[in-house]
Design goal:
This protein is about 30% helix and about 20% strand. By secondary structure, the protein is of the alpha/beta class. It is globular. The structure holds S-adenosylmethionine (SAM).
Length: about 290
């Protein structure tokens, strides 16, 4: 089915519209990240040596980036030897990704689609990753089970997004940066609809309380291997997208989850696997873990 003609959930079509409109603002960052010799992560560009998102050797690993944007993370994985698929909802973002992948000679499969319903067979990948992609723009009760479906037993899911404390400290009018004040309820964090705010309207984001993430992982069949709360290495009043370095030095603005799909050996460090064909496959996607049942 054509990715543009499918019936999409409200948040997926809104985020597609929002990112098509914003893509031009993210080209420079994409260029810089593609040029980086070593990966760095998040708003404060913390080096891979401190965050450990990627296996050092990804030879023979089938990897997917969920919400790849300009696809520099996909590029980093390809450089480490992985066969990489990047999926993104925004054609405009993918246009930048395709151009930069071409300029850097990276052989990536870049797909226009929805990271909550990926057109690949069950167990097609050893490694799945998201940095501010599905991690914050997709409904966790849909995309976490979908990532689980895509992974082989023992496969890994690693993602980085905003810490729930950021949601709690975000003003309701969407103004930035986040405040040093508890504003929104913590226990009901799930869907933040930013379409009607005064400041930079648009987009629907997701997060969960930490206990909500843990229950979701357990019920989906993921084991938590590590959890990081990233700290800005410097202080300062300048705003990094939504937060100042002062804030992010005192409080965690970003979280990293490192998960392993239960069962099987550790396949994400390498090992050859047959790649399933993508064409004409109807995935068993759209599985939802019911939060009320947790
Ligand atoms: C901030 S970018 C993150 C990607 C990458 N790290 C980057 O900075 O270029 C967020 C991306 O998530 C994508 N996205 C949002 N919702 C999506 C969905 N349901 N399926 C696939 N991609 C999605 C957006 O189109 C956007 O390119």
């Amino acid at each position: 089915m054509d990715a543009s003609s499918e019936e999409l959930p409200e948040h997926v079509s809104e985020n597609r519209r929002y990112w098509d409109q914003m893509a031009g603002d993210w080209v420079d960052r994409g260029v810089r990240c593609w040029e980086a010799s070593e990966p760095w992560w998040g708003e404060f560009e913390i080096p891979e040596s401190q965050v450990g998102m990627l296996p050092p050797d990804m030879s023979g690993v089938d990897a997917i980036e969920l919400g790849c944007g300009t696809a520099y993370v996909s590029g980093w994985m390809a450089r480490r030897g992985a066969r990489v698929v990047g999926i993104d909802g925004s054609e405009a973002q993918l246009a930048t990704a395709r151009r930069l992948a071409g300029e850097h000679g990276a052989d990536l499969t870049l797909l226009h689609g929805n990271a909550e319903a990926v057109p690949y067979l069950d167990g097609s990948f050893d490694f799945a990753i998201s940095e501010y992609g599905a991690a914050i723009w997709c409904d966790p009760y849909v995309w976490i089970p979908e990532a689980h479906r895509l992974l082989r037993p023992g496969g890994r899911l690693v993602f980085l997004g905003t810490h729930p404390l950021v949601t709690v400290c975000s003003p309701l009018d969407g103004s930035m940066p986040v405040r040093e004040q508890l504003i929104q309820d913590y226990f009901t964090i799930h869907r933040s609809d930013w379409r009607d705010i005064a400041d930079d309207p648009g987009g629907i984001e997701f997060n969960l309380p930490i206990s909500g993430w843990l229950r979701l992982f357990r019920d989906t069949g993921f084991v938590v291997e590590d959890y990081l709360e990233l700290q800005a290495p410097t202080t300062g009043a300048e705003v990094h997208d939504y937060v100042t370095a002062d804030w992010a030095h005192r409080f965690p603005a970003e979280q990293v989850w490192k998960l392993r799909r239960s069962g099987g050996d550790d396949v994400a460090q390498g090992g050859a696997h047959e790649v399933d064909e993508v064409v004409g496959v109807e995935p068993t996607a759209g599985v939802r873990v019911d939060p009320a049942g947790i």
